[in-house]
Structure formats: structure tokens, C-alpha cells
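ESCALATION

Customer reports they have been waiting on this structure for their group meeting. Please prioritize. Original submission:
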Amino acid sequence: MINNHSEMPLRRLPSDCQTIAEPNDGWSYAHHAALAAFGGRLYATWSSSRRNEDDCGQRVMISRSEDFFHWTPPVPLLDSQMGEHSELVLTAGGMYVHDGVLRAYFGRYEYPPSCLRTDASLPEGRALRPKAEDDPGHMHTAMGVLSTRDGEHWTSPRLLPVPVVPNHGPQPTASGRLIVAGGTMFPYTDDPSGEDGYQLTGIYGDAFGDDPPYDDSAAIELVTKARGWDAPLLCEGAFFQTDDGVIHMMLRSNGPFLWCTESRDDGATYSEPHPTAFSDDKSKFHFGRLPDGRFYAVSNPVTGGGRNPLVLSLSEDGENFDVRYILRDEPYEKRYPGMYKGGLYGYPHTVIAGGFLYVIYSKRKEAVEVTRVPLSAL
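Update from on-call: job pushed to the front of the queue and completed.
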């Protein structure tokens, strides 16, 4: 069983750390960060909202760095946009590099008009998202992409026929097939560009009945309830593939341990999900593989820690993640109020480039920071 049991105490790694974005009075929410290495630079994207998580008008930001220590001022890659009834919710969905092109993905949806509320203190009484208990679902859920060849000039965004808000951007399997890890849907394509040919699959089963399936923060509640899993919520997948070809799609459960669903046919179908012994503090995470073949996870494994510390776990076999290092555990106080802004080190994503493992994350869902660790230290 996949686990992170260890007889060794958590150890601290030497690392560099740099802040990419700070909150301000107009835009005080930042989350869903991701990294890419492209053309000798690092690129960071994340979701930015005026105050609340996944609120109307949420946009996607971008910044880049030549040297890790200095980052360009954040600017909107996708600015706030109007939908049918109110501003859309745009969510950063990761990046992917292929054949000299950097692609940035995003998810989008909007709230039904019946559950929107207005705030007279905002310009023009702008609509706000409902509280979770008042949210019956989302409209027009879709994944989109835009691309660049020089890192500065981007194509217009294009919506794909994929009703998914990505948890991570496309990640290749050993065969080269690309899989987008969502919540309960894991679309795949054999188009190496990652822009077309997606097939829908996942663990949602018949949860949607005769209605078209979709995958976002509302759908995962529906699917978890319909499938009857013994977990508060299954969502936010991230996968790694072992040498036997098995894809292990790890899932947040909102319980004390991650769950897992496996694919033995290169991501075409998945097994019934089951609990693992990999501890988790109700957060998103990222798995990957080092150049030397070891597997790794960056997550918040200390239950009850308030998503602190941020930990790197290593495994020789893809089962026992028993070597663990603290990446970050410094305090950070929330500066602005907002809906669902809990947890310290949130939603990490990783990339390996130039002899370093880079990890990006949010802090209290309002600042964006990146840490790097030399691979030689592992």
C-alpha cells in the first residue's frame, strides 16, 4: 500500500526561497499556482481574485524569471471576463511545454444566477459567489488553452471540448500519452501538443445520469455522494507511473489519508478508488519522478497542521515514501479577509530544471512563493 511511514524524523533541506506575488487591497486572493521551465526562464501562473476563493471575476496571472531571484511584476494572462449572467470564474490550470511552445491551461465556469449575491460596496454592485451551502452547481464548465513561442506574445484563448477545470496541466505517461489530472475526470490525448483529441475518462461512473458529465468544485461533491465512497470528498488528482506501467492517480479525500485509483491501460480506464496510508492534511499535492528514478511527492502530510509544514517525500519503489524533508514551515499571517482562505502552504506544484527541484505554492491563499532545492542535496 502506498504510504509515507518513516522511522526517521523530518529533516530540513537547504533551499532558496523567493516571493513572486504579494496581496493588495484590490486583489487579495491568490491560489492554484503552477510552474514551467521554458526558453531558459521560469514561468509562474496562478488564480487571482479580488477577495474570495473562486469568486466572480477571478482571473489568471503570470510572471517570469531569468534567474529565480528576480520576477517580473505579475500581469493578467487572462483578465476578468463577463459570462452569460456575471463575471466568469477563471482558474489557472497548469502549463505544458512541447516542441518550442509553452501552453497555459485554464478552467472556467460561472454560477447560476439564482444563487449569486451582490455587494453594494463593490463597483456597480458586482456579483459575488455564493457560500458553498448555497451553491447548487456551476454553468458552462470548460478547459481552455493559450500558447506562446517567445514567452511574451500569446495566442488568443481557445476553449477545448473538455468539461474540466484542470487540477494540473498535461503530464506525459511513459508512452507519451498526456493526462490532465482533474477532480474525478482525467482526460487524455495522444496529440503531443496537448491541444486536441482529448478523451474523457475517470471515476465518475454514472453519477450524472443522463446529463453530460463535468468536473469542477461543484461536480466533485455530486460525484462523491452519488458513488457512495467512504470519504468526505475525492478530488484534486495528481499521478505518477511506476515501471510496471501502472498509473497511480492519487486523490485528496478531505480525510487523514490520500486515496488512489489505478490505471493499467495507459489512462483509458481506472479502478475503483481506495484509501492509502499516505497521510494528508486536506490539501492538493504534486507527485513526480527525479532524474535518478526516485519518486517524489510535495504535500502537507502532517494532519491537523493547518497545511504546515510543506514536505518533500521520496521513494525508491513508488510505494514507500519514507524519506521526508521539510521544505517550508515559517509562519505567515493572513493580511486580508476572504472566503475559504485557510491553510498556510497551499496547493504545491513542481518542476525540475537546471539541476533544481522547484516548488511553487500559495501562502494563506494570498501570496505566491517559490522554493528551489538542488537535486544534489537529495
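Sent to customer with the following note: The radius of gyration is 19 Å.
Escalation resolved.
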